[in-house]
Amino acid sequence: MSSPASSFGGPTLEFWQQRFESQRTPWDRGAVNPALAPLVAGGVLPAGARVLVPGCGAGYEVLALAAGGLHPVGVDYAPAAVELTRARLAQAGLAAEVVQADLLDWKPSAPFDAIWDQACLCALHPDLWFAYAQRLAAWARPGGTLVLLAVQVEREGRHEGRIEGPPYHCDVNAVRALFPAERWQWPRPPYPRHAHPAGIAELQVVLTRLAEPRGAA
Ligand SMILES: C[S@@+](CC[C@H](N)C(=O)[O-])C[C@H]1O[C@@H](n2cnc3c(N)ncnc32)[C@H](O)[C@@H]1O
Asked: Which end of the chain is flanked by fewer CB atoms within 10 Å, N or C?
């Protein structure tokens, strides 16, 4: 199937669907990301918040957010991911919106209080990152929160300049360029890194969308 995302030559919907069907999903912890609970408990992701979970995969975080009294909206274009997330919610007796859509093509009905991007940016070909980051900025309400968990694979330069992925390595300098301080409130470093069972690390950056771009007249 042709889609805005796949037309850039990166991984396609069929690629991801096949990964779920063949259960080759090394990104899948089999559990909710342990980074989520402290952010809910600490009020960074407060009860009642409407939270977008782009590229929700098997849906652990959608479930955990719904269980914590937030209102998650999971989006994924792989039918298998949508089915897994809906089944997980149904099994737990929880309700949440789960949308099958290409994030490069999708328009939400209203902005979000928060966005939980866990390995979704890093699943997109880097040629798409700027357009995707613009979308995240438009989808977060002014004062809203972006939690970005960016995969650190650190293999650049070892493949004669070819871009290897997914996942695509996204270090803090790339995150700064995509989510500039003119538009997002940055906390002071250091930024936490979380170990992933697959042997990679996730860089966690929590940003606040500014009401007005800094420097605007
Ligand atoms: C690496 S997986 C991460 C899944 C989940 N966030 C996790 O960490 O377990 C990337 C997910 O993004 C979805 N995805 C990739 N590109 C997408 C796009 N353009 N639109 C919607 N979903 C997309 C894939 O289907 C897959 O479920």
From this structure: C
